[in-house]
Model the fold of this input.
Amino acid sequence: MWESINQNAERVGINLILVDVLGGRIHAWIPAPAIAQLENHLIEGEIYDLRTFVVRPYPAMQIGICFRNEFFIQLNHMNQLFVSEGSNFIPPHVFAFTELSNLMEVATEPKFLIDVVGVLQRVQPMTSFTNKRHQQKSCIRFSITDMFTSREVSFYDKLAELFEQGLRDATQHPIIVIISSCKAQRFRGELELTNLPATRFFINLDTEAVHDLRDAFRLANSQT
Done:
């Protein structure tokens, strides 16, 4: 879950990613008038039965959609929302990974954000700077590789601080990082990945993509 804040620092909505029993996922939106009624009934990671909801297409010019999907769910005061009593397994995380070699193509299409996975390489120390709006910002830069292509990543502000702490807490090496709903862009002429409000990171997550990449890393290093 993450908030949408306008230029006047007002909360205009809450975003969620919903996952179903088939491993499908969809973005859901709670507009400001419905926040008070729904916010306290939603706990990240909990399983719910959701009924009487509205599915809408994204506006034609919408950019920064958290993953490739043309539709989203809009929640309101008419929704029927219950904690599920069923025993169906629903995966806690669903990803659709983009290969790091394809960032050139993705960077020219700002409509959708992407998921990536890579082995952590170089990490630069956290830096602070003042932006054009005279706001104090923090940034951590690092690189990841999928064993074929390496890409630079820049995290800013709270996510940068959380990532720095996550690296300190990591006990398994090499560190493998999943970044979900991140943005591919050009920065100073070079391709990089960066975060938006929807972006999350996962360090050494217990999932098939991480296990496969760790095995590939070990195999490559055993042959050198």
Remarks:
- The chain has a mean pLDDT of 92.
- Residues 48 and 83 are 4 Å apart (CA to CA).
- The chain is about 20% helix and 40% strand.
